[in-house]
Amino acid sequence: MCDAMQHGGPDDEGFHADETLGLQFGHRRLALIDLSAGGHQPMLGWEDKLAITFNGEIYNFQELKKELSAIGYPFRTQSDTEVILAAYHTWGVSSFQKLNGMFAFALHDQSQQLTYLVRDQAGIKPLYYSIQDQQLIFSSEVKAFKKTSYTFVENKNWKTYFLAFGHIPQPFTTLQDVFSLKPGHYLKWNHEHHAHEIISFEPLPPSALITSPLQAAENLGKSLEDAVKCHLIADAPIGVFLSGGIDSSIITLLADQHTGKNLKSLSINFTDQTFSEEKYQKLVTEKTSGIHHTYLVDEQDFNDSFEKIMTAMDQPTNDGINSWFVNKYAKENGLKAVLSGIGADELLGGYPSFSRMGLIRTLQKLPAFILRFCERLPSEKLKRIYYLSYKNPIGEYLFLRGFFIPETIAKILNISKKEIDLLFEAFPIDEKINNLNGAERASWLETSIYMQNQLLKDTDFMSMSHGIEVRVPFLDQHFLKTINGIAPPQRFPAEKKGLLIQAFKKILPEAVWNRPKMGFSFPLEQWFMKGGQITKEEIYSKNQTAQKLIDQFKKGQLHWSKAFALYQVYTSAQTPILKVELKNHNNGA
């Protein structure tokens, strides 16, 4: 399993075993804090009765360490990993809520014969698990499960999910009985009884909300500045992704205030000016004192890298190609970690979905048979109204961001449409959405489904494929607490991301914020069309619907992401299972 994820942890490898319990921890290390052997993992703590394998960063580890040192905990290293062990020894499971960072870790408590799997509240770091033959198996990537002696079969529903969502939504994966641990939760495994329970440590909602626009902007600005400052903590080279949009520009400018000439920023551009944001990037870099590198990606680069990109995918996705390239150049630039602007759109109203919730409410008043009839309308966007006939709120997300409608999915996969409808009606969705309306509801859908399942997942496995760590200040726990403490009218003004713009107008060039949203996109339609990677007729020869859809793509009548989805569905194959003797594994990198 560790070998399968060596790319994400190129700096070190370690193992820990407790033969009496049949327990094995494995770790591949990407060293960013305490680069010495003191940061080696798995790490033991408190008379060697605790063991941890940890993936991520704890940004408030220095404050926690100071607090724990004051009450006598004997630290031996400079790592944030040891702080997790010390915090657990001192406060037990309540320590998980004290951690501000991005993390996925397994912590074994020998004295209580318990092992905990713990995942951060924002779902930044992935953590997958499976329970077979009264054994717990877990990993940072799904592909590692296939390297065990256990038998994992294909999840028969993954292609349906993928064709509808454009990703595989948690808790599901491509493997049956391999699940994603829910963000802000921990799995407690009892070794004596071979039993488990999953428990939330999500923060409680704020007791009072800020209603003053000026106070809201001031609090947001100070909180994000603090988040960027602590996200820059590292003992290895760190930089910033600069796309030229509002979010990455603010992160870059704030990072420059704390790092100055040592800051490295990097951007990607294209010869096709339709996709290039270089002029906006220059407006920002003219205000910074660090070193900026810009890289030109062309069609040949894409064609040469296509197979590597596909190999890097841990799970099928209709996105992530851009992330692969930007992390490739970060690696070539000598960086070990980079800051990204992921999260701002979802938290502060940057997407069209925020203004469409009223339309959803209006459409949902129509009889279900009319909503279902909409699948026969000529427009692809209008066909998605069909999803609003579901009683499950997941239909709202699929109306907003869905790919193919059930009727088309049924034809692509040669299954019944009723089977698809039943699958989505039964989709497990957090009940807290029932208490949300309007922009708050849109934010929950965008954050909990799109961001966590698409953006963060893609970013993690594409960055790890190059041995790069991506940090996301907009998802800092203290910043999230600030955001959630602002009343909806102030948090979501009429102007998209208006609160964020107001908070940083003094440092952000007007040309950057006063323009239409562009998004970080590549000229993939042209490249896929010319390169022919996804349009080979023999791939789709056994299905008429797929053939027609690819023909539409060739005529410019189908978005490249849908054609790319078809390609992945029709070229997927189960990887042969390798046999090893170890029974219980984890990989922290």
From TrEMBL:
Catalytic reaction list: L-aspartate + L-glutamine + ATP + H2O = L-asparagine + L-glutamate + AMP + diphosphate + H(+)
Family: Belongs to the asparagine synthetase family.
First-tier enzyme category under EC: ligase
Keyword hit for Glycoprotein: no
Domain Glutamine amidotransferase type-2: 1-192
EC number: 6.3.5.4
Pfam families in the record: Asn_synthase, GATase_7
Protein keywords: ATP-binding, Glutamine amidotransferase, Nucleotide-binding
Keyword field contains GTP-binding: no
Gene that this polypeptide is encoded by: asnB
Pathway given in the UniProt record: Amino-acid biosynthesis; L-asparagine biosynthesis; L-asparagine from L-aspartate (L-Gln route): step 1/1
SUPFAM superfamilies listed in its UniProt record: Adenine nucleotide alpha hydrolases-like, N-terminal nucleophile aminohydrolases (Ntn hydrolases)
UniProt name for this protein: asparagine synthase (glutamine-hydrolyzing)
